[in-house]
Design goal:
- The complex is a heterodimer.
- Chain A is of the alpha/beta class.
- Chain A has helices spanning 2-12, 16-43, 46-71, 79-97, 101-126, 133-152, 174-197, 202-209, 211-215, 221-247, 257-270, 276-295, 297-314, 318-333, 402-410, 432-438, 455-463, 482-491, 506-518, 536-553, 564-570, 588-592, 595-602; strands at residues 164-165, 249-250, 346-350, 362-373, 376-387, 391-395, 417-422, 425-426, 440-443, 477-481, 524-528, 556-560, 573-578, 581-586.
- Chain A contains 23 helices and 14 strands.
- In chain A, the strands form 4 sheets. Chain A has a 6-stranded mixed beta sheet with strand order 9-11-12-6-13-14, sandwiched between helices. In chain A, strands 5-4-7-8 form a 4-stranded antiparallel beta sheet, with helices on one face.
- In chain A, strand 7 (417-422) and strand 8 (425-426) form a beta hairpin.
- The termini of chain A are far apart.
- Chain B is mainly α.
- Chain B is built from 11 helices and 2 strands, in the order ααααββααααααα.
- In chain B, strands 1-2 form a two-stranded antiparallel ribbon.
- In chain B, a hairpin with a 2-residue loop joins strand 1 and strand 2.
- In chain B, helix 2 (36-52) packs across helix 8, helix 5 crosses helix 6 and helix 6 (157-167) crosses helix 8 (179-201).
- The longest helix of chain B has 28 residues, at 2-29.
- The chains are: A alpha/beta, B mainly alpha.
- The interface between A and B is large, with 37 and 38 residues.
Chain lengths: 611, 278
């Protein structure tokens, strides 16, 4: 318990090294930028200031595109629509009711409320279990088109195709607008930067890398994505609100699909996933367009187009991505940055909150489960039960329906008929993340981890379900349940916590995924051919870990395995699946030596069944 | 009433002509060619050039196919080829390509709206109604395109290789099919077809450097809904195009303009894989 207490205490505060890191990476640049924003009006001419104020608001919209695309992997063309909603909320409000403090508040409230509602709806439409990133992009394309058509048909309310102009707006000097808009950009940047590098922010990267694994770690990714969409939409709307408050013109172009693609171009050129790159991209393009579009109208857009294609094809990281790459390369050259394999994170053991009841409860109940794909029946009438502390191997030839069975246990929408109960609760048609909540952990056949996250962060994502991660800080302690920690220590992952998962060997990736699933503290563990492709030594290590889990933690393990010797060594029971039915179910000795097994695996005793 | 039916049929035919090139690229390469719009524009300007040179109007689609196909194949070679593993980036790069092509067209021809005379004009009395001959010609053109393409896919060696690449690219490569070549030709044909569409629709619309854009979203949505087969594309064009005509006629043209995009988005939510299978 002492360990747990100290873990809690240290998660609450940031370690000193993280604080200095944050200071260097965030505070100093933002103070410098704030200095520039304050000094700007003394240096720059009126024309440039004018352009920059608009560019600042566009940069905020570009930042929201970067968060959605660069961090969570949703390519969106629709942020312009939210920008436009904020813009028109102000323009319509001030045109209809005149300018005043309560009108301004009303318009602001309308902008935020309307955008949040629309963004929530668009998010619900775009993100559902099994949705593809392409579909979200499709929806983001439709949104601005629909909005612009609504604006066109709005008559005098929206000003139709010419937009709204000539309403009274905030009476601020150009200098104040400049400083206000600049401060807004810096504030957005700092907040986004802190939130995205926090423990909670890592979840976005995990979803981008591997949405399915997130779901099977109990994270409702659709909900996270919808929430992010609402936040990004509201921020973009506020940017549009400021933009029109300053310029005094709201036009359909502010909401259109072309502007939406321009935002994407800005982020791509600046560098997706770098935040600062999005701001720089937006400012450079906006300012350069303003200066060059009069002198070289078509050539300038041609240059932007060519640069965009080149960046997408050759430098997917954009300007900032390649600068960062070059910086790291130079540092490496002079040996200043050590390769980060170890990390500042220290491991701790989490005591089980509730002591596992040492009974032989039935935790998996499968009754009459069938799965059909059209006329093809893969599983028919499969029934069995598994108790705590049992290690059941599911064997059978290829195509017997083993993986389909695992899927039917882990995802409520998979089976065609029958009931499944996990720890006494029927799974109905629940999504995988909800079934994880019932106490089920699933390890996939091919190692499924978060490729661009480091080992410690991968494990931390697995704990998100039970411990709400911090939105502002990075915890220096990684508290894991004893079983997960044992896997991390024994596999050698403990020395490589700071290494990105994609650089791990196949065996280590498998161990990492197992540790992630164990970090969920499941009652039921589903393993799909966990030892495929492992060396003999790794396989023996794996067997020891599994039998230990079953003996000590009273875990219920269901494992798909082909190697009958391995099965004999670890199992307490064997289920033989053949042509979608349970052919045999019994103790190891009875099933492993049954003549039917030999028949099915070699297929030589009954030639009529061989194809 | 008869006019309405003919409107639905001809609208479906025009939508089919405009989306066919996009479908071919999506079906084989699994990427979405956002430069499709600018190839429609290229075709339209080819028709403009053909009519200025005094060529026979029958040659306009051929010239357009040549121009679109060559430019498309070049684009595949230089840009698209590097993005096969990154479908979302391919959307962006082809969008960038369309910016480039659009600006080049503007530099060459100016940004003002121009017109191409229709090769056949006037109306035809059909079931007691007078209906535009050129729109009726579009129905025939749609069937010709569908027929040629089905013939190419099912009757030639290239078609066989293409079908193999569609079904299982890795296996096709293992069997010695040069999938790079298949992709190059496919992209060229897809862009060529877009240009043909551009040449065919110009007599019905005006020509300007951004003319393709208004067709892009509709074509894109139809292709997504169809899920990658020519038959279901025809069906989607008929159903969604028909609803568009009905909405424009009976409710409002603005709602009509949104019909395809909104209904396609909703039907994809309900059936993400499109309507190609089952």
């Amino acid at each position: 318990m002492a360990d747990f207490g100290s873990a809690l205490r240290s998660t609450a505060s940031l370690s000193s090294s993280d604080m200095s890191h944050l200071l260097v990476r965030v505070a100093i640049p933002s103070l410098f930028a704030a200095g520039l924003v304050i000094a700007g009006p003394w240096i720059l001419d009126t024309y440039t200031l004018n352009i920059l104020v608009r560019a600042f608001f566009v940069a905020i919209a570009a930042l929201t595109v970067d968060v959605l695309w660069g961090f969570s992997g949703t390519l969106t063309f629709g942020q312009s629509a939210f920008f436009g909603m904020g813009a028109y909320a102000l323009a319509i409000g001030f045109t209809q009711f005149g300018f005043g403090p309560w009108q301004a508040l009303l318009a602001l409230g309308a902008a935020v409320g309307l955008t949040a509602a629309v963004a929530g709806f668009v998010g619900w439409l775009s993100f559902y279990p099994g949705s593809t990133p392409l579909y979200a992009s499709v929806v983001s394309l439709v949104l601005p088109i629909v909005l612009v058509q609504i604006l066109y048909s709005g008559g005098t309310l929206t000003g139709s195709s010419s937009g709204l102009v000539g309403f009274e707006s905030f009476d601020l000097s150009l200098e104040s607008w400049f400083r206000l808009a600049g401060a807004a950009v810096i504030a957005t940047l700092v907040v986004a930067r802190i939130a995205l590098s926090s423990d909670a922010g890592r979840v976005l990267g995990a979803m981008r890398d591997n949405d399915e694994r997130c779901t099977y770690l109990g994270i409702d990714t659709a909900r996270v994505r919808i929430g992010l969409m609402v936040v990004a939409g509201v921020v973009a709307a506020l940017a549009g609100f400021g933009y029109v408050g300053f310029s005094g013109v709201a036009a359909p172009e502010n909401a259109g699909f072309v502007f939406g693609t321009q935002l994407v171009v800005m982020v791509a050129l600046g560098g997706r996933g770098s935040l600062v790159g999005a701001v720089v991209g937006a400012l450079v393009i906006e300012v350069a367009s303003a200066y060059l579009s009069s002198s070289l109208p078509f050539v300038w857009e041609l240059i932007v187009g060519v640069a965009f294609v080149v960046v997408i094809v050759v430098l997917p990281g954009g300007l900032f991505g390649s600068l960062r790459g070059a910086g790291i390369a130079i540092h490496r050259r002079f040996g200043r940055v050590p390769v980060r394999t170890s990390s500042a994170v220290t491991l701790a053991t989490l005591e089980r909150a509730a002591v596992a009841p040492d009974r032989n409860d039935v935790v998996v109940e499968v009754d009459g489960v069938s799965r059909r794909f059209g006329s093809l029946s893969v599983l028919s009438g499969v029934s069995f039960t598994v108790r705590q502390g049992e290690l059941v191997s599911i064997v059978g030839p290829n195509g017997a329906g083993k993986t389909t069975l695992i899927r039917c246990l882990a995802d409520g929408r998979e089976r065609s008929e029958g009931t499944v109960r996990i720890a006494g609760h029927a799974i109905h048609r629940l999504a995988p993340d909800r079934i994880v909540g019932l106490g089920l952990g699933r390890k996939f056949q091919t190692a499924s981890v978060f490729e661009t996250l480091n080992v410690a962060d991968c494990l931390r994502i697995a704990r998100v379900r039970s411990e709400r991660p911090s939105l502002i800080g990075v915890s220096p302690v990684l508290a894991l349940p004893a079983a997960a920690r044992a896997v991390v220590e024994s596999s050698g992952l403990a020395e490589r916590l700071g290494e990105e998962a994609r650089f791990l060997s196949h065996g280590l990736k498998q161990a990492l995924e197992l540790a992630m699933v164990l970090a969920l503290e499941p009652q039921v563990l589903l393993l799909d051919e966990p030892t495929a492709g492992l060396t003999r030594a790794e396989r023996q290590g794996f067997a020891a870990i599994l039998t230990g889990l079953v003996a000590r933690e009273r875990l219920c393990v269901l494992i798909i395995e082909h190697d009958l010797d391995f099965v004999r060594q670890i199992s307490s029971r064997i289920i033989l699946l053949h042509q979608g039915r349970v052919a045999l179910d019994g103790p190891v000795a009875a099933v492993a030596d049954a003549p039917l097994i030999r028949e099915i695996y070699t297929g030589n005793t009954r030639p009529t069944e061989a194809r | 009433m008869m006019t309405l039916v003919l409107d639905i049929i001809t609208t479906a035919a025009i939508l089919f002509i405009v989306s066919a090139g996009l479908l071919i690229v999506f079906g084989v390469m699994k990427i979405i060619n956002f430069a499709h719009a600018s190839f429609i524009t290229i075709g339209a300007y080819s028709a403009l050039v053909a009519s200025r040179l005094g060529l026979s109007p029958v040659l306009a689609p051929a010239l357009a196919f040549l121009a679109g196909g060559l430019i498309g194949a070049t684009a595949e070679r230089v840009v698209v080829r590097r993005l096969y593993g990154r479908p979302l980036d391919a959307i962006l790069a082809t969008w960038g390509l369309s910016i480039v092509i659009g600006q080049l067209v503007t530099l060459a021809f100016g940004r003002e709206v121009q017109f191409v005379p229709a090769p056949i004009s006037g109306t035809l009395a059909i079931f007691g109604e007078d209906y535009s001959r050129y729109r009726l010609l579009m129905v025939a053109a749609a069937f010709v395109i569908a027929g040629l393409f089905t013939g190419l896919l099912n009757g030639t060696r290239l078609g066989l290789s293409t079908r193999a690449v569609i079904m299982n690219e890795t296996l096709a490569q293992g069997l010695g099919i040069d999938s790079t070549r298949v992709r190059l030709i496919t992209f060229g044909i897809g862009c060529g077809l877009a240009a043909v569409a551009g040449a065919l629709i110009t007599p019905l619309a005006s020509v300007d450097p951004n003319m393709g854009l208004s067709w892009l979203i509709g074509a894109f949505m139809l292709v997504m809904v169809s899920g990658g087969s020519l038959l279901t594309l025809g069906l989607s064009c008929f159903v969604l195009g028909g609803l568009q005509v009905l909405a424009s006629t009976f409710i409002s043209p603005i709602l009509g303009g949104l019909t395809i995009a909104v209904l396609a988005a909703v039907s994809l939510r309900l059936r993400p894989e499109g309507f190609a299978r089952g």
